[in-house]
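Researcher: Can you fold this with manganese (II) ion in place?
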Amino acid sequence: MKARLTWPTTIALAALSAPGQLLAESNVQLRILETTDIHVQIVDYDYFQDSPSMTSGLARTAALIQSARAEVSNSILVDNGDLLQGNPLGDFIARQRGLQTGDVHPVYKAMNQLDYTVGNVGNHEFNYGLDFLGQSIAGANFPYISANVFHDDGDDDPDNDVPYFDQYLIVERTLTAEDGSEHDINIGFIGFVPPQIMQWDFSNLRGRITARDIVETALELVPRMKAEGADIVVAIPHSGLAAIDRRGMDENATYYLSQVPGIDAILFGHSHRVFPGDRYADIAGVDITKGTINGIPSSMPGFWGSHLGYVDLQLVVSDTGEWAVVDGIGAVRPIFKRDGQDIIPLVEPMEEILAAVQEEHEATIEFMRTAVGEITVPITTFFALVRDDPSVQIVTNAQRRYVERIILGTEFEGMPLLSASAPFKVGGRGGSGYYTDIEAGEIALKHIADLYIYPNTLRVVTMTGAQVREWLEMSAAVFNRIDPHITGEQELINPGFPPYNFDVIDGVSYAIDVTEPARYDRGGNLVNADSHRIVGLSYAGKPIDPEQVFIVATNNYRAGGGGNFPGMDGSNIVIEAPDTNRNVLADYVFELRTVDPSADGNWSFAPISADVNVTMISAPNADKALGPGSPIEKIGVDSEGFGRYRIRFGN
Ligand code: MN
Ligand code: MG
């Protein structure tokens, strides 16, 4: 049987195999190319910004594919999934136009031109349901694999489980050796998806499929692939690289796969990161110069087509057809580089790819401006810092609905759930026009992009009642202290405090007493330990229990420590959802169609008994969002074009 040879052994064998001798051996190079996490980003275009992109698009990666192929005698191309969902083109096809029998999804109109050998299924492939997934991949001119997904037969007997996809693929290829001779090889490919799909897409998948542990599946199947004739085995896990101990059902299992005997190369993905890369330098067994994990050549090429990944294997084949891997490297090539603030493209898009999806691309740009739902009240950010506001409420409502779903069947089901978000486009350095302003009625994806401008991903953290209070105290540092003894004008908003750090937490109710000094400064330092601005904090109609444990929906920025909030350093993240908050919001509108984003009034300012003169700035036309009886009134326009407003504090 084939052995894993070391270089000295190879040289020794080669020395013996002079021309004319029986023991002959040839050196063969094989390059395996990978795309991953394309997320429907075929065209180099940012649909949310409505402008060209030089940092994304398979059309650009395709140019790298062509040149990387041209350099070598033997190459093979694989895709590692998260292909069908994640940008407006994906939503347009799945939610608006649909796929009729025989329709080819635009991603395959593009990819079918690139001679892929195999595709692996990513977690996001399940987002639009199994039927859409089946219709979509039917249009691929290459096969699909996924080893750890099974039909749910409901009998709790794993022995009779039927795989939902082909678990692996063994293809025969003729490779050209360095000496020009040709040799047949059987290349085995095995794909994996995080078993967390059962949590993330519970409502689509429950009762229909089940998912198994990636490593257990590999340990069972790799020997079977070898027995069926695979000369080498290439793993394509849609699964990241983590340096933590294996716990079973791991989301990021690539490290453990590198320790599974028989796997010769790993083309991975899912994390949207780049391997080899500095962030992985300190993991034991990882060589970021060579691109290996425990000696196994490996690659992860970013996301949205930002990079092409590849592994170069050096093989030897004996005259009896025995193959051995003697060395290999993993690497990536980017489609752009940064030069300070500038982005320098390193390739041009491949015209054939652009042409293949031109109709769908143009329809998607139109779709961005097309109503996907309706809102029953206007959404503006003019006064989102000074009153409970639909622009934040619609986000917290959407997050809550999403989290309620993904915790079904988990240890978090039934726990008290809160939802936090902040206003984003609220003037400031963006100027007097930098506000969200959406009228009641039709709402389009461009509005959703405007409401949630950051590409954050959803996170869930655990927090005690006491920690929730501190979170809100930090938010409340956006306000200057209002002195009730001063009769002159006092500006309410501290312009040095980023408005995106003014988190509103829905699910609790509270008032903010701005006559107290801020408890924290903007760096999260406790500067007034005796001061409390948050008053009357209650949950379910009762004063909050400082010991009670809550789960709180937020984003990766806040949960990871962004904004220096007390108690937030990433350690209390309990769910890392695979979806962006913006996508959570879009899905909320897609599903409800008619959305009432009215603020529930869960927070307000504590009344001030003195007659204070408190002002703020907003858009010059923001007064259109003030109803009769509003405590806010317009008092003028300042020299920078901002409207000036006075706020009454309900004394
Ligand atoms: Mn992805
Ligand atoms: Mg609210």
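Model: Folded with manganese (II) ion in place. Residues 1-21 have pLDDT under 50 and may be disordered.
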